[in-house]
């Protein structure tokens, strides 16, 4: 009984240490203080690294910060979303995104989510793709150990405890396994796009009536791609077509 | 009965009124559908409801060919009783002001907004912009307020009542950068009905913002040049002097209109020239002078004295008072080793452009755990009341940074406020390429190992259960395995009624004994039997084994020693023998052991 409790605690502890280790390692790598200016110079260097095909949440975050300070609100949002697509637990990118949104509030953004929804979203964001993978592995090992315990449990003893352990670990494994699948799919097929420069949302692909004017930094869902325009859905559910050149995908098509 | 019906009727009416109260009625219109390049376009959005509503000005539509300037709102309410039923109408009017940029006919897109989950929109409108009218054409316009004789008989208007525009700064002498409120008043001996601003001419040496612009003429009686005038405020602006010396204040041009029999007094007015003396800031400017000029009170606060790694320390400098809020830049926070410090963020809570409170927010993120001495923020300004530079140095704190944990990620969950500043650059020395663990081979190897161990564990657990719950069946099962492994050829021979059964059975059995009990195959039957006695085997089992060996030898070496019909019986004997060996091994090894046959 004690061993059974100790094993999950040990594994959970290991997971905590892992999370802390990552933070400490990342922080120890940052050595130089933030420069007060010269964002454009930094941006050139960072974009060269990104152009080499490097995908790194910290790199994307820094590009976003530079873009923001250079007045490119749309591009800043785009790069922060790219950082979050790699690591949804990237706190700095999420805070910067919230900061940009708070500077340009709209009717939709002002409406606060219910507390429980916020809590769920926060937990969902905390479990980034790789954290989910680690949790799934831990749960897989736990489920295997619980099943082994159940298989070889002395027949004369009450089997409630190993059955409970199997049930809990198996349910958690299922939940986190599904979450990992969903997150992995979204990571690979992220349909979000960001309006880079102010553009008109039109009712039809060509020659349609202007429905709204989208400011730079508006996040839209890509639905369908035309020759020169892109069919998108706004956060409030409104749909329409916008100029392809005015928008960039969070996950660019290779 | 009558009372009940009346009550029901009233309730229904009240319910209907409540339902109607949820709805807004919106309409958009233009003050003029045709304007000239000198005029401004006024787009009016009128929102009505039978209940009070709180609506902020919807976003101004983008109109091609125009530059958006401002939006002004007004509200009104009307309560009336019709047949004993009260009805209220609450109206809000938003006037969007645009300036034309080119001639032509333009479409003004409908205004769209949401209120309490419902979407509202207005229809598109069209406006035509024409060339500015020349003075001659203006004389032939159909303006009902136009006085055709004003130019021919200037003395006529002066005799019937003087009116003038005065520009009055609140102070004649200011410091460079010190904001000053300048008011334009209409002075008239006879009250004018309206005043239309036509133009505002700027002069070099200052920047300005609108401070106040009343929508109607509110008169007060004043004495000016020993004469009594009716005075109404036209406009107030804030002037930020940017040039030392004497600067000329903006000149306002407008048209005063009178109605009725006084309409012959209509005239265009220019504000009187007014000047401002601008003093230079004295020497001794602090090295990091922010550019703030005014009368300020400064305070500073830190969000915490203990934080976890990964959390941020917020330092807020509050600047309250009156001054050039729009003109100064927040100073950066002093550098601290081991900290990333954001660019300063600004949150204004200003009553107008020059009065109120500004919060300058710095986000400090520690890189390592430990105790840090955090210096206070600094803010320098020029105090216009004392004429001297002032420097505020906030008090520092000792900050304890402890190791973060997984729960610290959720620490800000209850905080519904948005972040105060943009987080600083992370500036990692290297950027390793992101790799999803779920797509790595080691991830799936661990999963496969788990599954494999489960399959093996399940198999062994099944065997153990069988051994425990049905030993006879288990012995038979293991015997069958032995037969399959060592005596398959013999069994096949027996099935085919072949006399080869006996040598094959003897050979297989000898092999089995060699593997299980270490009895060498080169020993004679007698020697093997003697060796088996040393293994503590039951004597009846050894007897049966000896008997079977003799049967085999008899069949092999004695002509007619065995008939084909005896093969079935011999096979049964062999099976029984093997089962007996298996059972003995199980009993000998104990119930919790795993027999070698299992492997």
Produce the secondary structure layout.
The complex is a heterodimer of chains A (254) and B (599).
Chain A: H1 2-29, H2 39-51, H3 57-69, H4 73-86, H5 91-103, H6 107-110, H7 115-126, H8 129-151, H9 160-188, E1 192-195, E2 199-202, E3 210-214, E4 219-225, E5 229-233, E6 239-243, E7 247-249
Antiparallel strand pairs in A: 1-4, 1-7, 2-3, 4-5, 5-6
Helix pairs in contact in A: 1-8, 2-3, 3-4, 4-5, 8-9
Chain B: H1 2-21, E1 25-30, E2 34-36, E3 41-49, E4 66-82, E5 85-100, E6 104-108, E7 112-115, E8 118-121, E9 125-130, H2 135-139, H3 154-160, E10 163-169, E11 173-175, E12 180-188, E13 194-201, E14 206-212, E15 219-224, E16 227-241, E17 245-248, E18 251-257, E19 267-270, E20 275-279, E21 292-302, E22 306-308, E23 313-323, E24 339-341, E25 345-350, E26 355-366, E27 370-374, E28 378-383, E29 388-393, E30 397-402, H4 441-469, H5 471-486, H6 488-495, H7 501-517, H8 525-533, H9 539-557, H10 566-589
Parallel strand pairs in B: 2-9, 11-20, 21-28, 22-30
Antiparallel strand pairs in B: 1-3, 3-5, 4-5, 6-9, 7-8, 10-12, 12-16, 13-18, 14-16, 15-16, 17-20, 18-19, 21-23, 23-26, 24-26, 25-26, 27-30, 28-29
């Amino acid at each position: 009984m004690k061993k059974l409790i100790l094993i999950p605690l040990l594994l959970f502890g290991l997971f905590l240490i892992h999370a802390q280790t990552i933070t400490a390692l990342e922080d120890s790598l940052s050595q130089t203080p933030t420069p007060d200016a010269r964002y454009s110079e930094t941006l050139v260097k960072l974009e060269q690294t990104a152009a080499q095909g490097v995908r790194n949440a910290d790199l994307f975050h820094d590009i976003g910060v530079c873009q923001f300070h250079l007045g490119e609100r749309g591009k800043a949002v785009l790069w922060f979303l790219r950082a979050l697509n790699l690591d949804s637990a990237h706190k700095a990118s999420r805070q910067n995104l919230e900061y940009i949104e708070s500077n340009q509030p709209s009717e939709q953004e002002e409406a606060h989510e219910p507390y429980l929804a916020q809590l769920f979203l926060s937990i969902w964001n905390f479990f980034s793709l790789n954290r989910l993978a680690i949790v799934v592995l831990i749960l897989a090992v736990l489920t295997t150990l619980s099943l082994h315990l159940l298989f070889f449990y002395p027949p004369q003893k009450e089997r409630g405890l190993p059955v409970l352990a199997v049930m809990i670990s198996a349910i958690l494994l299922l939940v986190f396994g599904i979450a990992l699948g969903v997150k992995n799919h979204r990571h690979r097929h992220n349909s979000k796009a960001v309006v880079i420069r102010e553009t008109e949302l039109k009712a039809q692909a060509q020659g349609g009536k202007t429905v709204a004017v989208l400011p730079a930094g508006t996040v839209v869902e890509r639905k369908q791609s035309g020759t020169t325009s892109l069919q998108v859905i706004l956060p409030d559910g409104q749909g329409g077509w916008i100029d392809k050149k005015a928008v960039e995908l969070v996950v660019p098509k290779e | 009965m009558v009372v009940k019906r009346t009550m029901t009727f009233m309730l229904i009416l009240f319910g209907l009124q409540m339902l109607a109260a949820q709805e807004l009625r919106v309409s958009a219109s233009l003050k003029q559908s045709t304007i000239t390049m000198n005029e401004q376009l006024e787009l009016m959005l009128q929102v009505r409801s039978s209940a009070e509503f709180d609506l902020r000005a919807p976003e101004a539509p983008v109109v091609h060919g125009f530059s958006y300037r401002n939006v002004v709102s007004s509200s009104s309410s009307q309560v009336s009783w019709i047949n004993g039923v009260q009805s209220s109408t609450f109206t809000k009017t938003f006037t969007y002001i645009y300036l034309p940029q080119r001639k032509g006919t333009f479409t003004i897109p409908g205004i769209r907004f949401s209120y309490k989950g419902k979407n509202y929109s207005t229809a598109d409108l069209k406006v035509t912009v024409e060339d500015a009218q020349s003075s001659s054409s203006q004389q032939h316009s159909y303006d009902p307020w136009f006085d055709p004789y004003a130019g021919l008989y200037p003395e006529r208007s002066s005799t019937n009542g003087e009116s003038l525009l005065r520009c009055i700064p609140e102070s004649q002498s200011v410091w460079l950068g010190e904001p000053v409120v300048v008011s334009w008043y209409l002075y008239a001996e006879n009250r004018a009905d309206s005043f239309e601003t036509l133009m505002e001419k700027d002069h070099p040496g200052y920047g300005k913002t609108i401070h106040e612009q009343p929508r109607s003429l509110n008169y007060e009686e004043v004495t000016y040049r020993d004469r009594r005038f009716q005075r109404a405020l036209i406009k107030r602006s804030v002037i930020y002097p940017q040039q030392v010396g004497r600067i000329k204040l903006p000149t306002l041009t407008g048209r005063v209109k009178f109605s009725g029999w006084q309409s012959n007094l209509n005239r265009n007015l220019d504000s009187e020239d007014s000047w401002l003396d601008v003093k230079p800031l004295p020497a001794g400017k602090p090295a990091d002078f922010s550019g703030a000029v005014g009368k300020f009170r400064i305070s500073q606060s830190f969000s915490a004295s203990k934080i976890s790694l990964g959390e941020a320390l917020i330092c807020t400098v509050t600047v309250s008072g009156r001054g050039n809020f729009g003109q100064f830049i927040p100073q950066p926070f002093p550098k601290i080793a081991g900290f990333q410090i954001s660019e300063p963020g600004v949150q204004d809570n200003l009553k107008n452009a020059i009065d109120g409170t500004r919060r300058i927010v710095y986000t400090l993120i520690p890189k390592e755990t430990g105790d840090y001495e955090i210096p206070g923020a600094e803010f320098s300004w020029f105090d216009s009341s004392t004429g001297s530079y002032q420097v505020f140095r906030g008090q520092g704190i000792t900050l304890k940074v402890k190791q973060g944990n997984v729960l610290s990620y959720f620490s800000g969950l209850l905080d519904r406020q948005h972040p105060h500043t943009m987080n600083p650059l992370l500036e990692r020395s290297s950027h390793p390429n992101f790799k999803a663990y779920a797509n790595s081979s080691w991830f799936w190897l661990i999963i496969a190992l788990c599954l494999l161990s489960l399959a093996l564990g399940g198999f062994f657990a099944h065997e153990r259960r069988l051994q425990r719950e049905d030993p006879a069946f288990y012995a038979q099962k293991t015997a069958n395995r032995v037969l399959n492994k060592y005596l398959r050829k013999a069994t096949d021979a027996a099935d085919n009624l072949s006399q080869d059964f006996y040598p094959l059975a003897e050979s297989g059995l000898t092999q089995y004994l060699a593997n299980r009990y270490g009895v060498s195959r080169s020993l004679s039957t007698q020697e093997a039997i003697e060796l088996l006695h040393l293994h503590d085997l039951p004597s009846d089992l050894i007897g049966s084994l000896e008997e079977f060996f003799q049967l085999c030898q008899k069949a092999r070496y004695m002509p007619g020693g065995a008939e084909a019909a005896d093969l079935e019986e011999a096979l049964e004997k062999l099976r029984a023998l093997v089962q007996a060996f298996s059972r003995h091994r199980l009993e000998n090894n104990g119930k919790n052991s795993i027999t070698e046959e299992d492997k």
